[in-house]
Specification:
The protein is globular, with a radius of gyration of 19 Å. With about 300 residues, the chain is α/β, with parallel strands linked by helices. Strands 3-4-5-6-7-8 form a six-stranded mixed β-sheet, with helices on one face. It has a five-stranded mixed β-sheet with strand order 9-10-11-12-13, with no helix packed on it. Strand 7, helix 4 and strand 8 form a beta-alpha-beta unit. The longest helix has 20 residues. It has ten helices and 16 strands. It starts with a strand and ends with a strand. It has two domains: about 230 residues, Ribonuclease Z/Hydroxyacylglutathione hydrolase-like (Metallo-beta-lactamase, Chain A, 4-Layer Sandwich), CATH 3.60.15; about 80 residues. About 35% of the residues lie in helices and about 20% in strands.
Length: about 300
């Protein structure tokens, strides 16, 4: 099978990238003679699609099974397919070391799903990704790098020989994921800056992000990300408003359309949004009205017959 070229970069053998979209994070299948691994598994609403993508890819590449799943971090769009893949392939689940207790106890107060108003089927992990160590994925050894900011337990994966970075949501072609820790007072701006500095220190020819297409102009993307960070960190309320809009848009991608009364109930019941409401010093009603109108104003949604409707 011919190797894929991304811009001027020839992807090495044994790497298959499933570019998914925004509801489900990208998945990367890495395969060799001794190991077949998948990085990240998408959202639970797409779990059957994830199983089908993996099954078809295994057949296409003449592979027998999936050995392990590796999660860069435990936001629901990156680990929502864990349980389904484990059930079908009996594969091991590897998670960042900092999430071990939360997953072992399935602690809703430590896991992000409830906090962000999202869902993730229960899964069990078998191994840990420890920053500073290496992991074999397919034919290659990958360095495990701490990547706090978007999620303070997140990791990236770096293949030094081929200069490939699996960046998760720490770096996209035009930015990075929402700095969620800032929404509940943990801090994240400095952590994003540190992670971008780490990426700058690496020799990277190809970035495979958590969302969007893989890219090779890393210097340009880091410049965009730094500018974005400056914009958000200069006004904490601006960052909070941005995070709130992203959370509602993400949920709307799942719903496609939803009765306004249920939209408002979801907003009120989502702890991260309640934190934003308090920070902005708005009443529950005013906050709900503002958030819906903000999506409509940005042409991310519309209101029809008292329903909020997604616009792609």
């Amino acid at each position: 099978m011919s190797q894929k070229r991304i811009d001027n970069y020839l992807l090495p053998p044994g790497i298959d990238i499933f570019e998914r979209g925004w509801l489900s994070a990208n998945n990367i299948l890495l395969f060799g003679e001794a190991d077949v691994s998948l990085v990240d598994t998408g959202y639970c609403a797409h779990q059957q699609m994830t199983v089908d993508l993996v099954s078809n890819a295994l057949k296409r590449h003449g592979l027998r099974t999936l050995n392990k799943v590796v999660n860069t971090h435990l936001h629901s769009d990156h680990c929502g397919g864990n349980a389904a893949l484990s059930a079908v392939f009996d594969c091991d689940i590897w998670i960042p070391k900092a999430e071990a207790i939360a997953v072992k106890n399935w602690d809703e107060n430590l896991l992000s799903f409830q906090q962000l108003g999202q869902e993730c089927p229960h899964f069990v992990h078998q191994a840990l990704l420890v920053p500073g160590e290496e992991v074999v994925l397919g034919s290659y050894r990958w360095q495990i790098l701490a990547a706090p900011g978007h999620d303070n337990h997140s990791v990236m994966l770096y293949q030094e020989q081929y200069q490939i970075l699996i960046s998760a949501d720490a770096l996209w072609e035009e930015g990075f994921g929402v700095i969620f820790p800032e929404l509940w007072g943990e801090g994240g701006f400095e952590e994003v800056a540190q992670t971008l500095e780490l990426i700058e220190s690496l020799r990277v020819s190809l970035v495979i992000p958590g969302h969007g297409k893989p890219f090779t102009d890393v210097k340009k993307s880091i410049g965009i990300a730094k500018s974005r960070l400056d914009y958000l960190s200069s006004d904490v309320d601006r960052n909070a408003r941005h995070g709130a809009k992203v959370l509602l848009k993400y949920k709307l991608l799942e719903w496609r359309n939803q009765e306004m009364v249920k939209v408002k109930q979801w907003i009120e019941a989502t702890p991260a949004l309640e934190n934003v409401r308090q920070q902005l010093n708005l009443s529950a009603e005013d906050f709900q009205t503002w958030l819906v109108q903000a999506l409509v104003k940005s042409k991310a949604a519309t209101v029809e017959k008292n329903c909020l409707v997604n616009l792609d």
